[in-house]
TrEMBL record, chain A:
SUPFAM superfamilies in the cross-refs: Actin-like ATPase domain
This protein's name: Carbamoyltransferase
Superkingdom per UniProt: Bacteria
Gene Ontology molecular function, alphabetical: transferase activity
Domain Carbamoyltransferase: 3-70, 111-331
Organism (species): Micromonospora haikouensis
Automatic annotation (TrEMBL), chain B:
Domain of life: Bacteria
Gene3D superfamilies named in the record: SGNH hydrolase (3.40.50.1110)
Protein name (Swiss-Prot/TrEMBL): SGNH hydrolase-type esterase domain-containing protein
Composition-biased stretches (Low complexity): 416-435
Organism, as annotated: Micromonospora haikouensis
InterPro entries in alphabetical order: SGNH_hydro_sf
Region described as Disordered: spans on this chain: 405-435
């Protein structure tokens, strides 16, 4: 049985294909269209996933959509009426649109089912966890009416047993402060997480006064904290007075008060999540927790809460946000339709296409650009790449299938030496062109992770943070608080990436590399080899490795940089978003 | 904030009541009525007002000491800034007469700018050395909409112009599609239900477009009356004889009609094309008439064929009417077409100018053929509406005359019909562009025309003109040939440097920077280049190494360009959103296959025909039928063996001939009316079949 899961029409649209209960392909539309967080129907992703699954459109038995449009309409209508909204600014309210549009635009005439949004989140975590049974927890901004859900999963499937209704939302809470701090809602929350380590939580009490917790995992946000409405900032004007902090303008200087507010909201989030998980464990006393939703991308909170208990074993999928809901919808729909469930832990997030190097070598040859071909000589390639890394090179690493989810995990990565104290600033300023406070992450061979970091679990999807052990010096990937967001790399999952880390470790004693996503600010992670070439040139990387091909920056024709620089000027600038976009 | 428990239940019930298609339309109507029942602030787009911020387009109005001037606004995103004239700062006019040029891409001199454009031409023609000094201010913007133009006109008084030249109209009938609110879409839906696509089109033109045009004209009259500004209206002309609606791809043949009529229409079309090829002009005219009788004048094809026939028969006035009918047929139909000014807008401009004594320059008269003044001369154009060097020169010469005439008192507007001919030479000698300058613009024209899906005869004509104007341009053609034949994005090609050496060429090719031409649909241009610049050795039709294709393809490859077309995935030439598969809106679907040498293979077709026609789909390779198959309402996969003998090294042409339409006329109209009711665009076109995939599998790879 072939099931296609789709998330679309809000943000991060994606497609996934499940064949006989096995997840065989998943991809985000933004990687193909090059529009970050693309919300349109996942047309390219659909074609790519079918091709990866080796099936055609006639072979799709079921299409599962990641939310219930009618329940969403309910919330939209309530919000529009409660907010006395300007109808001229409201989007079209049409519960029939997702099915009609997906059928037409994907060319699908077969059975179409919808899965409630938080069911899709929960299913994404549970069916990929490998747990026979587990407690289920989801938290995001909102899906239909739900912002937080509690449930249980077992051989019979998943069951949502409790919910917190909109507008009382941990995601909205964090997003409101994100907007207050001058960052973009629905995309920059991770910047607040990174900034938090630089501050002290001295606004914690004032923030906490605006949240009331209740029994059964319930909580309420004060209207003075979050102002869910159709337009305008997500927080009320009065919040500044309540907190005693002036909102930061986008692009403005980050003051101590802003760092402290970030620290405060991070701590408050962790405490609220902790209380929610205590409740969940009391209701469903399992050792296993499956956790998804946009809030689950807060890896700092995840690690602290996991260590705190009460759940011993956690699983957070590689794409815990809305893109991953395509996976959840497909797996849940399959289980419900087929009755069969495969208990298998997802170990590899590289679920996308592997476009190959063919077009790249043709372009290089045509332009007389020198490159090194290591086909059939992997060890030579790895030694050469290690040479470059040790010499301080920052290189683009494009290998095999594309990752699914927001993290680059060795398929589409920028790699560098984590021991170099200047490397972080160099990459932030020159390559990624992003804020200086944002940390980079290390990838480490799984078998040495515990030696170098205070990490007691595998972290294949870079969703765990842990302290760098005393005596280990990795300044480029150590955050200000001495922590790092770690990816553990297993030999049997990513053999070439593991071999590179091992090679680097042999040379330096440190089988660790700085690993950040292969893109520049405002763009999605690269997809095919030509995207990688373009990014390599524009970012001024020192080298590019695509499969067995190595290109050095010195070989790049100056005209390429000039052309791409002029072309980049023509791209529309990224639009800052501090508005309440959860209406859609 | 209310406790939501009860509200959630109530909202759930409301959503149940409004959760179907009828509910969606109900909510939309309520939204619109609520929004439009409240007094709304008057925007400058609705009514010109001089009280807004001191900005015109991307310029700030500044006091220079010698009157108001302009300073280009900093911080405008490059993507937006590049659509405007490149003018930076404009000094105060002092004692000079200030002439402001407003308009669209034709006014910017698309494909010529910044080397040459209407503003530079107008300056040259006004600079006679005898009369007063003139200061020409170029404020033209590519893709200027009717609303934007009104806003500029409203803001213009603060710049104290003496003359305003409005060279616009080509975008207006497309602008009318924008902002179709529920009140209007209900109107259109009602017209569609009552009278089909013709009624929908007429309603859109008469009740949406023309009132907007009238509002602009009122704005201009007010500018003249209240600010004493001389207004010169330029009536755009279309390349009636040099633009073809018969392209093999990306064309609109005909909107949906009853199946039998559609079948007869395509039969007549096939016969008409034979008549065209054989020069049987009377037969062609008869067949075109039969087609028009069937399509009700909504297809661009028969008018073009009839115009061609009548031109050949020397009946130029009648030919013009036929070509105009072809040009105008798609306006208001809510399908995609390239800019043009329909007759009803041209006539509106002329009538208004006469009634209100505004000055007018009618390009129908200025750009006509010397030997057939009823028809425009294709040499004055670079595509459908953008003018060549000679076209710009003639147009601006006439504008200059009108301006200088206007100083002596307002003359009667010129006779608008083309039969009036030109009114004589301008005050300055016509500017003559250098041979290379002309040739470069013609190479750009060939590229752009190919990009727009024009047939090879049209594309080839521009290349031939380029070579005639400047034979050394062959080197540029060879570079272009190599650019298109090799894999990778434009920015990575070594050919980009030589191709972008001229400023106007740089604008085109650098804008295409991320484009990957080897995956594209520019086959027609490649064919033509192979013919005229075949010495590059890379042309697909005759070259030795086509398209970067391996000598023997090792594995299967996709032939559909769904994932590469710049128009978007599976683009249909209407305003419906793209799809993940190709929809055939023409009776034949043409696809190209590049091979280095003849090779055995298998074509694997993943297809669908929603009505499940019992008639087969026929597939040919280079004109030889290699198989037929029946397409059903579900996706199916069919493999067809392709013998090496029917293939050739270079570009191979694969054609699928579809049976009758997959959606009947009544259903199409019902669904389109419903779509309009939802605020979505109608489909309008016939749907013959669908392709998810078309892959070529070399037999060696299959067996290996």
């Amino acid at each position: 049985m072939n099931v296609v899961g789709v998330s679309a029409f809000y943000h991060d649209s994606a497609c996934a294909v499940v064949v006989d209960g096995r997840l065989v392909a998943a991809a985000q539309e933004e990687r193909f269209t090059r529009r970050r967080h693309d919300r349109d129907a996942p047309l390219y992703a659909y074609r790519s996933c079918l091709e990866l699954a080796g099936i055609g459109p006639a072979d799709v038995d079921l299409l599962a959509y990641y939310e219930n449009p009618r329940r969403k309409l309910s919330r939209q209508l309530w919000l529009a009426l409660a907010d006395d909204a300007d109808p001229g600014r409201m989007p079209r309210l049409d519960a029939t649109q997702p099915e009609r549009e997906l059928r037409e635009r994907l060319g699908f005439d077969g059975p179409f089912v919808t899965v409630d949004h938080h069911e899709a989140h929960a299913a994404n975590a549970f069916y990929c966890s490998g747990f026979e049974e587990a407690a289920l927890f989801t938290a995001d901004a909102v899906g239909e009416w739900t912002t937080t859900s509690y449930g249980v999963g077992d051989g019979d499937g998943i069951q949502i047993t409790g919910e917190v209704p909109f507008p009382h939302s941990l995601g909205l809470l964090y997003s409101a402060v994100t907007a207050f701090l001058g960052f973009s809602v629905n995309g920059d929350e991770y910047k607040v997480m990174g900034l938090a380590a630089y501050g002290r939580p001295r606004y914690y009490d004032r923030l906490a006064e605006l949240v009331t917790t209740g029994p059964d995992g319930q909580f309420r946000l004060d209207a003075g904290l979050v102002l869910p409405r159709l337009g305008g900032p997500l927080y009320p004007d009065s919040l500044a007075a309540r907190l005693g902090v002036t909102p930061r303008l986008p692009g403005g200087e980050i003051a101590e008060t802003h760092r402290d507010l970030a620290s405060s909201v991070q701590l408050l989030l962790e405490d609220l999540l902790g209380q929610a998980l205590e409740y969940l464990h009391s209701a469903h006393p399992s050792e296993n927790l499956c956790y998804a939703g946009g809030v689950a991308l807060n890896c700092v909170a995840n690690s602290r809460l996991r260590r705190r208990g009460p759940f011993r074993h956690w699983f957070v999928p590689p794409a815990p946000g809305d893109a991953g809901s395509a996976v959840g919808a497909a797996l849940l729909a399959h289980h419900r339709a087929d009755g069969d469930r495969h208990v298998r832990r997802l170990a590899d997030a590289r679920l996308g296409a592997a476009p190959g190097r063919g077009a790249l070598t043709a372009v290089l040859t045509e332009a007389d650009v020198a490159y090194e071909d290591y086909t059939g000589r992997e060890s030579d390639l790895l030694e050469r790449v290690t040479d470059l890394l040790v010499q301080g090179a920052v290189l683009g690493w494009h290998q095999g299938r594309m990752e699914f989810g927001p993290r680059a995990l060795g398929g589409r990565s920028i790699l560098a030496d984590p021991r170099d104290p200047a490397m972080r600033d160099r990459i932030n300023q020159r390559v990624k062109k992003r804020e200086e406070f944002r940390p980079f992450a290390p990838a480490v061979v799984a078998e040495r992770a515990a030696d170098l970091f205070e990490l007691d679990v595998d972290s294949p999807f870079m969703l765990e943070t842990a302290a760098v052990r005393p005596g280990v010096t990795l300044p480029a990937v150590s955050h200000v608080d001495g922590s790092a967001r770690i990816q553990t790399v297993a030999r049997d999952v990513a053999p070439r990436f593991h071999a590179l880390l091992t090679c680097f470790g042999r040379r330096t004693g440190m089988p660790v590399l700085l690993n950040t996503s292969f893109n520049v600010a405002g763009e999605p992670i690269v997809n095919d080899a030509l995207d990688a070439l373009s990014c390599f040139v524009r970012a001024g990387l020192d080298a590019l490795v695509v499969d067995d091909i190595l290109v050095l920056r010195a070989a790049v024709p100056p005209a390429w940089r000039d052309h791409l620089s002029r072309a980049a000027d023509r791209h529309a600038p990224r639009v800052h978003n501090d508005s309440y976009s959860f209406f859609l | 904030m209310p406790e939501p428990a009860d509200h959630i239940r109530a909202a759930d019930r409301l959503a149940d009541l409004l959760g179907d298609a009828r509910g969606a339309e109900t909510v939309r109507m309520l939204q619109w009525l609520r929004a439009t029942s409240q007094p709304a602030p008057v925007t400058s787009a609705d009514r010109p007002t001089p009280s807004g911020p001191a900005r015109i387009g991307v310029w700030d109005v500044v006091d220079t000491g010698s009157g108001p001037g302009l300073r280009r606004t900093d911080g405008v995103p490059t993507a937006e800034a590049s659509t405007w004239s490149t003018v930076r700062d404009v000094l105060g006019k002092g004692a000079a007469r200030r002439v402001v040029l407003l308009g669209e891409s034709a006014a910017r001199g698309y494909l010529l700018d910044p080397v040459y454009n209407p503003a530079t031409s107008l300056t040259r023609h006004l600079d006679t050395g005898n009369g007063p000094d003139y200061q020409c201010v170029d404020l033209a913007r590519t893709s200027l909409s009717l609303g934007q133009l009104r806003q500029m006109v409203g803001d213009l008084a603060r710049l104290a112009p003496d003359v305003v030249v409005v060279f616009a109209g080509n975008n207006w009938s497309i602008s009318a599609y924008e902002g179709i609110h529920p009140g209007r879409s209900a109107l259109l839906a009602g017209a569609l239900r009552a009278g089909g696509y013709r009624a929908m089109r007429n309603t859109l033109l008469d009740e949406v477009l023309l009132p907007q045009v009238d509002a602009l004209l009122d704005d201009l009259r007010r500018l003249r009356d209240e600010a004493g500004v001389q207004v010169v209206l330029v009536v755009p002309e279309f390349n009636l004889c040099g633009w073809s609606p018969l392209g093999p791809v990306d064309a609109v043949d005909v909107p949906m009609m009853p199946e039998k009529a559609l079948s007869r229409w395509y039969t007549a079309r096939r016969k008409a094309l034979s008549a065209l090829t054989e020069g049987r002009w009377h037969d062609l005219a008869d067949l075109a008439g039969e087609m028009t009788g069937l399509d009700g004048g909504l297809s661009p094809v028969p008018g073009h064929l009839l115009g061609t026939a009548l031109t050949a028969l020397g009946r130029h006035a009648a030919a013009r009417d036929a070509f105009e009918q072809s040009r105008d047929s798609v306006c208001g139909l809510m399908v995609k077409y390239l800019p043009r000014t329909p007759r009803l807008v041209q006539d509106r401009l002329v009538a208004f100018a006469r009634a209100h004594r505004l000055d007018i320059v009618d390009l129908r008269a200025e750009l006509c053929r010397d030997d057939a003044p009823e028809l425009p001369d294709p040499d004055h154009f670079l595509d459908y509406c953008h003018l060549s060097h000679s076209g710009v020169d003639r147009a601006m010469s006439a504008v200059a005359r009108r301006i200088t005439d206007g100083e002596a008192g307002a003359p009667e507007p010129t006779e608008p019909r083309a039969t009036a001919g030109r009114t004589g030479p301008g005050p300055a000698e016509p500017a003559t562009a250098g041979g290379r300058e002309q040739a470069v613009s013609l190479v750009l024209a060939a590229t752009y025309n190919a990009f727009c899906g024009q047939p090879s005869a049209v594309v080839r004509r521009y290349l031939d003109r380029a070579l005639a104007a400047h034979p050394p341009i062959r080197a540029m053609l060879a570079a272009l040939d190599r650019l298109l034949a090799r894999p990778g994005p434009v920015w990575a090609s070594p050919q980009l440097g030589p191709l972008a050496a001229d400023p106007n060429a740089a604008l085109m090719f650098e804008r295409l920077s991320d484009y990957r031409p080897h995956e594209s649909r520019l086959w027609t241009l490649r064919d033509c280049l192979a013919d005229v610049a075949g010495d590059s050795g890379s042309g697909p039709s005759g070259g030795a190494r086509p398209d970067g294709a391996p000598a023997r393809p090792a594995s299967a490859f996709e032939l559909l360009d769904i994932t590469s077309t710049i128009l978007g995935v599976g683009a249909v030439r209407n305003y419906t959103p793209p799809r993940s598969y190709l929809q055939a809106n023409l009776r034949e679907t043409e696809v190209r296959l590049a091979l280095a040498t003849p090779v055995d293979g298998v074509l694997r077709v993943t297809h669908r025909h929603r009505a499940g026609s019992p008639d087969p789909v026929r597939l040919t390779v280079n004109g030889t039928t290699v198989g037929e198959f029946t397409a059903g309402p579900d996706w199916r996969v069919t493999d067809l063996r392709v013998p090496a003998a029917v293939t050739r090294g270079g570009a191979n042409t694969i054609r699928l001939s579809w049976p009758g339409p997959a959606v009947d006329n009544a259903t199409r109209i019902r669904e389109d009316a419903a779509a309009l009711g939802r605020g979505e665009p109608p489909y309008v076109l016939p749907l013959f079949g669908e392709l998810h995939s078309l892959t070529f599998h070399p037999v060696a790879a299959e067996e290996g």
